[in-house]
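User: Sequence in, structure out. Go.
Assistant: Echoing your sequence, followed by the structure tokens.
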Amino acid sequence: MAYTTWSQDIFTKGELSPYMYARVTVNEYNNGLKTAQNVLTYPSGAAGKRFGTLYQTTLTGFTAFDQLYFQTFQYLNECVYQIVMTPGNIYIYLEGKLQAVVVAGYTAPQIFNGISTVLGAIFRFTTQGIRPFDLTRSPSAPFIINALVSSTQLSITTASFPVGNIYPVKFDTGVLPTTIPQIFTGITYFIYTHTTTTFSIYSTSKDAKFQTNPFTIINAGAGSHVVIQDNWAITATVFKNRPVYDFNGAVVSYDGNGFSASAVSGSNVTITVTPPYSLLSSAYVGGGFFMSGGSARITAVASTTSFTVAVQTPFNIASSFIPGSLVLLAEPAWSDTRGWPQVCSSYQSRALFANTSSLPNGFWASVINDYSDFGDLTTDDDDAIGFYPTSDNMNYIKFIVPYRSITVHTNTGIYSSPLSDVTAITPTNFTLQLQDSTPADVIQPTAIDNQIVVLSGNDAHQMLWDGINNAYTSNIVSVISEQTIRDPQDETAFQNLRRAGSRFVFIINRNGSMATYQTLISQGVSGFTLQIMEQSYGSASFIQTASSSDGRCWFVVQRQIAQTAFTSAITGFTEETSTDPSTLEVLSINFSPTIPTAMLFATMGALPTSSPQVNSSQYYWAVGVDTDNFVVYLTQEDALNAISAINFTSIGTLSTVTSWPLATIFTLEELTDEVFLDCAIQYNGTPTDTVLTGNLFNAQDIKMVGDGFGFVSEANINLGNQIVFESHGSTVEVSDAFIGFPINTVIEPMPLSIASGSSPKETTLTKPKRIMFVRFMFNNTIGGAINGVPIAIEPFDMAHIGEPPFPARGIFELSVLKGWDDFTNPTYTIEHNEPFDIQLLGVFYSVEI
């Protein structure tokens, strides 16, 4: 038989659909993976473990994913806030620390369906049924700097700080403290509050969070103030002028009416109507009047026959009778009666609005550099713009995405502002032209890597900017990975500045998974992989995500955690029989008969006698038999499989059982490349063998990294809201540690297909062949297994006992020689759940065919 070698060394197409398993003649087959769970591909072709997440805080104020709006707020050039909007409140976070809570009485649907934009120092929000509002920041009362506490700490006179918080601050008045680097007035710095009166100074919020690079302080100055910038307020958006629209012109004609003006110009010109126009009312105040080549804004309505205007462009004729057919009389386009914009954005120093209940296809752009003026009565280049795109069907605008142009996404397709004009948009050159018939679904499209990604149903469309033809061209990029997107609920673009060539779109699915689209058009990279959150006890799901331009990204995650619920005295037991396991009796404990529940024993006398003997320092797992009786297992796995139940021979004395069922929480977690763990708690400080973690990891199997070493913590040692670092039964002190849920990475190459002959249609996919050896090339890898065989890249004599494991590069070879029917079992599964990285560079086969 012939002998050959074959390689699979490019994985940039990510995880392929099952429908691709037989398409061996296309490049995508050889550039993709069968399974890529918790994997990110590299533009160079490798496949590696995805990022981890750092726990920031536990969120409150909502109980379901559709009661939340989550977004980042880049505040000028200072910092990035995380905005969490829930029914009734807006929570503002900085580096996971709560800065303020602003009361806002909006409903869950209004919150969940909202859209926001950033206008300098303003966070603007629009949604259904309410006037747009602006979230703004202002300084609080100043604190007098009192004294120098240490070379890195100052104090204030009055105890006013929450301990352990981070704040943006400015310094003013008097002689400023002398620092290295020197602080100045008018510049924003950040402080970390050590006590209620003392603080350190930092240049960035991230430095303040981790207390790194504090300013050196020489003296406290004299009479100067530290002013915290944390006074947040929400106000209805104030408009200098609103756009106008003739809502009644098509219903009631005023062609027979006559109009005359008391003057051709001025701010208090009276317009007389003959005969009376019956619809004239106070609703027209703020509206527009156009006559004889001039335009004016209506300032008052005296009666059905008279109103007052402020002339913007002088009329050609004043007192003469002007027939109504030559006149336009318009109301304000926005009002409580006509509706307020439900979509917002910004572009070229203009604030953008769209879609009211009366004008769902309405689009408006403000005056340049004035986000409150939408007056469209004049047409100077910097004036406001109004437009109403139409097609063969009713159009309503769902999203505005500014990119190379303004793209407006409606229920019927995608419109764009002029593409061939390199100058700024103006009232005279503005138009919206249909580019594609792909409607945006429920998620605002996002722009990245010279394209706009539009989700329509379960399809991801790539709207690619074509500079030659000055147009957007459409392409569905998710077809070969169609299984990764399922009922998407949120998306964000993310550019990882710490990872070469990394341009991503994170798509959150309704089932809690996340489809990651990686794109690098210049290198032909375009692929999807699936990310999931996992826990040993309970479940975890991605809910929403938001990123910032400085290469940071955050996730809202729904997690189930164990919380103490019910304690009751042990009242009886039954010993095991040949058919039934032993049980304990506790009145009305009501453990689930199908899902194991964590539990703890406690005693003021003696614990029940059992085999193996139970103790009060670890979690056990209970499965209910009836309301009062339950079976106890040593591990969750035993409980799930109903094997090896603990046998009781007494109930002890004065002993109790406490149930630890699951409760749902929502956590804010930040993407990190520092550690490959989820919901990780970071510790950095004095060497210790015990780290407090709160109740996040109660009854969970977790993993840790301490000073470069990997550790495993079974659920039974996580008591008292703390984790103990142990190795071979002895505690280990660490000074730099991460604790979190392991990320279970699974990589499966596509079934081996060797091209044969001169035609690309000739393949050995279904032909008998014998795989003799498989060589896997790895980079930056620690741990993992292939088909259950541990990956060993370095020889044993290269392992240095007592030193942390070193990420290795090299070859791991498997000798297969299984026979000639390998098509029935052709796959090699690489699994990795260590708190370290794994990077697969290629798979190389030696085959007889």
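User: And one key feature?
Assistant: The CA atoms of residues 573 and 828 lie 48 Å apart.
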